[in-house]
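Recap from last week: sequence in, structure out.
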Amino acid sequence: MTGEWSALWRELATHDVQAGAEGERQMVSRWRRVAQELDAGGGLRPGFPDPLLDVLLSRLTPDMAVVDIGAGVGRWTVPIARKVRQVTAVEPTPGMREVLHERLARLGVANVTVLATPWMEVDLEPHDVAIASHSTYTSPDLLAFVRRMEACARAACYLALRVPAHDGAIGELSARLRGQWHDSPNFTVGFNLLLAAGIYPNVLMENAPVRRWTDATLEDAVERAKRHLRLEGAGRDAEIRECLGRRLQRVDGAYRWPDGMRSALLYWDTP
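Predicted structure tokens:
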């Protein structure tokens, strides 16, 4: 059973929207804007509660050393660093690392060491806690990624994954156009993979979607779907338009997707 979930994760990871040079460029651009919002709020994003981070912070103590894998622009790194003794931030993407360094200097956070080496290649002494928040999606071997987390964590591992809407329009389109309901690596696949491998994590689920996609026009929504599913050309536009015209809601003159964005935090003590 482990092999089936591993194969599905690997297949989805190779098609993830963050993969490739263009996906990386868009990701860095988006997170640079988020970083500006974070800094305007003193390190936290105003108006965006993060219950998963709150629970994580409540379980950390000032004497701990934490490794934050795929730290990005430091959305979790900065609040964690203010709670613990030392943070090692692993971030191999140059653009994300540049923003992270800028933020640490601007906010006066001095107890973070930033490493450019990819997680599966990094040579790291054990820390108390290993964290990977939405940083596994382009890693084809999730189980190897997690086993390396366990080897580096003396106390506990924390893994945040996105949770797909069970009745989302993207899932319907993915099943119709690509023959697979799962459009990208996610909690459903990752959680079942861990269970099949003998890892039984606790799960904290966000109670409600944090945000929903909104597009100004139906054509914008069609283009979003094509980007997300990595579909080129106009060969399937009519099918996409029919689905979205049926599934999207008109709200305040725009088209709102039913696909709510929420996350889950998986956490477990290391052996």
